[in-house]
Amino acid sequence: MKWGKMSGLLLAGVLTFGSMSYAASGTPSSVAATAAQASWHEVSVQTFSLLDAFERGQGVATDGAAWMFNSTLGLLRTALDGQTVLARNAAAIPLAIALKGGDHIGDVSYYDGKIYAPIEDSKNYQHPYIAIYDAKTLKYTGKSYELPLNLHPGGVPWVAVDADRGQVYTAAWSNATVLNVFSLSDMHLIKTVPLTQSIDRIQGAEVYNGLLYASSDNEAQTVYTIDPDTGAVAAAFDRHLPNGTEAQGIAVLPTADGAILHILDVGASRVTINFRGYAP
Fold first, then answer.
1. Distance of CA 55 to the CA centre of its chain
2. The domain containing residue 253 runs over which residues?
3. What is the C-alpha separation between 262 and 37, in angstroms, rounded?
4. Residue 253: left (phi > 0), alpha (psi -120 to 50), or beta?
């Protein structure tokens, strides 16, 4: 969510070139804190640099046939190789939202041919929005929803669609104590679900097997599970990324290497993005 400060550095470099590298990982980069956490392990990492990093620096979603990445300002659709560009919307924030100060897209989510994109005015945090885009063309559909300000005091860093329950989730970025539950049909607030423990610095979340998996930028880069019905929170695993790394968005997709969760992070150099796959 809070990666805007590095944009100037990246933009200075992107005028020259962008690059990408990929490596399979035979051993996890994270160390499980408990036996319950030990099953999740890193199986791959794809690294993007400069322009490629900038366009993938915030969030990620998938429709099963492609990845949809986003930067603070734009959307990018690629093949599942993560590199082949299929569509691009470099200035995706709708004018009406931009005029209210909207300048930052958080971690996106996908449902039924549409991208759900959280947009915040990162200077004042007074106008949190969810804007809807066509997932193939990345064009704005003309539909957006302003979210309750009292539930998003530090903006709206991520959104997650739960198709099975017909719900959409958000939460506060700093020390979230409740899960905000909206109707998928019209985005009206259904309820807030108290969490059994607060979670700080959630950068992205997505639903898998009925649970919400939340990527946190805490010291250990913990991935938490949240039960949307009860609010029960548990640590799924700690990633323990290198010092200076910043956790970002998350997507769910079973891939040939066994990975289910795919999570972005900003490298310690601040000019690279890593896209890591985790298998249970």
1. 13
2. 4-279
3. 17
4. beta
Q: Kindly tell me the sign of the dihedral angle through the C-alpha atoms of 24, 27, 31, 37.
A: positive
Question: Residue 264's closest CA among 67, 116, 113?
Answer: 67
In the 8-state DSSP scheme, what is residue 174? S
* Total structural domains within the chain: 1
**Tokens 């190789």 appear where?**
81
The predicted-structure confidence for 220-239, as pLDDT tens digits, reads as follows 999 999 999 999 999 999 99
Sign of the C-alpha dihedral computed for residues 90, 140, 80 and 238 taken in this order: positive
Percent over 70 (pLDDT), the chain: 86
pTM exceeds 0.85 for this model: yes
Query: How many Å apart are CA 165 and CA 100, to the nearest integer?
Result: 32
- Write the pLDDT tens digit of every residue in 70-107: 999 999 999 999 999 999 999 999 999 999 999 999 99
Contact predicate 60/275, CB 8 Å: yes
* Nearest C-alpha neighbor of 236 from the set 246, 252, 257: 252
* Token pair for 72: 């603070």
* CATH number assigned to the domain comprising residue 23: 2.120.10
Burial of residue 64 (CB within 10 Å: 0-12, 13-18, 19+) is exposed
3-state secondary structure of 95: helix
